[in-house]
Amino acid sequence: MFSLDIGWNRTAALWGARDNETGVIYLYSEHYAGQQEPILHAQAIKSRGAWIPGVIDPAARGRSQVDGQRMIEIYRQCGLNLQEAENAVEAGIYAVWQLMTSGKMKVFRSLGNFLSEFRLYRRDEDGRVVKDRDHLMDAMRYLVMSGRDRMRAKPAAPKPEYVYNFSADNNQRWMQ
C-alpha cells in the first residue's frame, strides 16, 4: 500500500509492504516531486501498481477543509484508490518509533529522500515537531496509523479457460 502527502512545493508518496509471517513492514519505494499537477503525481503512483490502495493526509494540504476534500477527490478521479488517513501526530510518531525500535519496520537503502528527511526530523526547544522537509515522515505516519489495514497481496491474474482449437484440419479428423 502507499501513503500520500500532497502539496504544490512537494508531493510525497511512500510504499510499504508487510511480511505476514514476521509482521515486519518494509518501506520500499518513494515518490518525491514538486510543482506538478495531480495527474502527473497520480501517473507516477499508479506506475508502481494501479491495484495498490493508498491513504492520504485528510487535510490534503488544503487552505481549508473544503479545499482539502476537493484535492482528495481530484486524486481519486485520477484513478487512485484512496482513503483518508488518521492524522494523529504524537500517537503516530510513537507508533512508528515502536515499530522501528522493535525491528518491525525496515527501510530500503534506495529511499534517498526518505533517509534525508529522517536525518533532519526533530523537535524544537519547546518539544514541537519541526515542520520542515517532513513530507515522507508524514507519509510514514499515515502508512503506520491507517495503511496497515489496507495492505493487500497483489491479486492473482485470472487463469485462462481452456479453449479447443476447432480449425478446419481438426474438424476434418473428427468428421471421418
Summarize the structure.
The protein is an alpha/beta fold and 176 residues long. It has helices at residues 38-46, 65-77, 89-101, 112-120, 135-147, 168-175, and strands at 2-5, 11-18, 25-33, 54-56, 82-84, 105-107. The longest helix is centred in the middle third of the chain and has 13 residues, at 65-77.
Structure, described:
The protein has about 180 residues and is of the alpha/beta class. It has one domain: 2-Layer Sandwich (Nucleotidyltransferase, domain 5), CATH 3.30.420. The chain is built from six helices and six strands. It has a six-stranded mixed β-sheet with strand order 5-4-1-2-3-6. The longest helix is centred in the middle third of the chain and has 13 residues.
What amount of the residues lies in strands?
Answer: 15-25%
**Biggest sheet statistics:** 6 strands, mixed
Radius of gyration: 22 Å
- Class computed from helices, strands and strand pairing: alpha/beta
The residue ranges in which pLDDT falls below 50 over 5 or more consecutive positions are: none
Question: Could you state the oligomeric state of the chains shown?
Answer: single chain
Q: Mean pLDDT, nearest integer?
A: 89
- Order of SSEs: EEEHEHEHEHHH
**CATH-derived topology:** Nucleotidyltransferase, domain 5
Strand order of the largest sheet: 5-4-1-2-3-6
Distinct helical segment count: 6
